[in-house]
Design a protein that fits this description.
Elements lengths: L2 H28 L18 H5 L16 H7 L39 H6 L5 H7 L3 H4 L13 H13 L13
Length: 179
């Protein structure tokens, strides 16, 4: 085998490795994953159960609604439009349509197959519920089909809630801004 053949083989192997690295980096840029829970290092004692069971403080929509902008929410909701239809009378895309979602009963859009967890949750989508849900859908409804990892920025979530509330024939009153 001459050096030209060896170079072709090495180039093919290196090209494949480069392609796999680019695909890996691109997929990490597109899809975010929640950070794993803190686990003790080897030989380290686990944290006490009481510390792990302490509930996280609940963020209140009222704390952010005073600065909320439906216009910013419209821009921030572009990611929602990948799976949800926002138009009045719009049908199911991948997820249920979001027109009129604030104030609507959970799991109530005909033609969409909701997860058993969402059906069991019941109730109505209040502005606070939407605010909490889009932070971490899996935490709000464990077992939901929604694969969105969540929006950590509370002001963006408040903007989105303000925008979604405008997408209704009878908008729900948003909470009064916190003092």
């Amino acid at each position: 085998m001459n050096s030209f053949e060896i170079n072709k083989i090495a180039g093919g192997v290196l090209g494949t490795l480069l392609f796999l690295q680019v695909v890996y980096l691109a997929s990490n840029a597109i899809f975010s994953h929640p950070k794993p829970a803190d686990t003790p290092a080897a030989g380290e004692a686990p944290k006490p159960a009481a510390a792990a069971a302490a509930p996280a403080p609940t963020e209140e929509l009222a704390s952010y609604i005073g600065k909320a902008s439906a216009k910013k929410g419209e821009d921030d909701s572009k990611v929602c439009q990948m799976c949800h239809n926002l138009a009045k009378g719009g049908g199911v895309i991948l997820g249920p349509p979001l027109y009129g979602v604030v104030g609507r009963a959970r799991g109530s859009v005909a033609g969409f197959q909701y997860s058993d967890a969402m059906k069991a949750k019941g109730g109505t989508w209040t502005p606070q519920d939407v605010f909490t849900f889009i932070k971490d859908p899996q935490a709000f409804v464990p077992g939901t089909k929604m694969t969105f990892s969540g929006e950590p920025d509370p002001q963006k979530r408040a903007d989105i809630v303000a925008y979604l509330d405008t997408l209704s024939d009878s908008p729900v009153p948003l909470p009064k801004p916190a003092p």
